[in-house]
User: Fold this.
Amino acid sequence: MQDTTHMARAVELAARGHGGTSPNPVVGCVVLDAAGQVAGEGFHAYAGGPHAEVVALREAGERARGGTAYVTLEPCDHTGRTGPCSRALLDAGVARVVIAVPDPTPQAAGGAARLRAGGVAVTSGLLAEEAERVNAEWLTYARLGRPHVTWKLAATIDGRSAAADGTSRWITSAEARADVHRLRARCDAIVAGVGTVLADDPRLTARPARTPGRPLRVVVDTDARTPPHARVLDGEAPTLVAIAEDTVLEGTGIEGAGADLVRLPRHDGGLDLRALLKELAARQVVSVFLEGGPTLAGSFVRHGLVDRVVAYVAPALLGAGPAALGEAGVRGIGQAHRLIFDEVSLIGPDVRLTARPATPPHSREK
Ligand code: AOF
Ligand code: ZN
Assistant:
């Protein structure tokens, strides 16, 4: 019971790192003294900065001796940008370590074993689900070698993202749009299809931006149709335009327009999205925010590459007009992409739904 309370606090602390730690995880830690009183708290705030355990141990000082540490991720056992946390916990004289989720990376794993060998009582798995959820982006990146993908949509109650004449400004409220900017700023890359660039000329920036040069703007543009004067090429943030291996650039004006170009294999009438995600992972993109349009979102869903859905639903009805999601490979109801709701909240007059696939990535990726 007490254990659960302290681990829940560690998860809460971990969440404070959201948006700041990439390409590192968010981690929280609570240290108790031998009498069971909270002596120190910490979280990982930025890549290269002190790990959560070190922050909490520093605050606890001598009081950590004989105490307990609660950590949302297995303490690291490697010397990276900072020294091993397993060592720091041993040196501090902590008697018991409670872990939520094991570290999946070969470089850092082994902290639990090192602690046990040093005589520390170690348990693992407490509030694992909560700790997985708070660190979902990084765990996906670490386990699968590809970024975590959040698909964002805005629609009416009847699931339409534009009216019959194509007008779509503004379906959701100013509050919802501000919320989108907040979520964008937490991601490493914002991905959109060229159809959206041509239709809406979005800037795809996060205002206010969190880190210079982030989020990276990515346009999925098989045939290099992005106009050289599109706002995504305004230089306010770096932009990557993904085109097909055999796309002829002559006459498109995209070369020298300020974007980085990457050539990817074609797949299913578009680009190979797994290859795109692999390319992004190589650029240390841990989390992707997928926005617009329905065709690209449909391809991501069809290939099982959407890890979270954030839907802003406006209290309005259209009755006609394009759907928020395009063809997603579903024929019969039995093939529906089933999700689990994680959160429902009111954002101004709109509702924000957060959901994740009911099946794990290995059984859904195609
Ligand atoms: C963190 N923060 O609180 C914990 C981490 O680049 P380094 O040297 O800081 O090491 C990063 C790795 O350390 C990270 O990928 C993860 O496996 C492990 N634990 N990392 O950034 C933390 N506890
Ligand atoms: Zn560490």
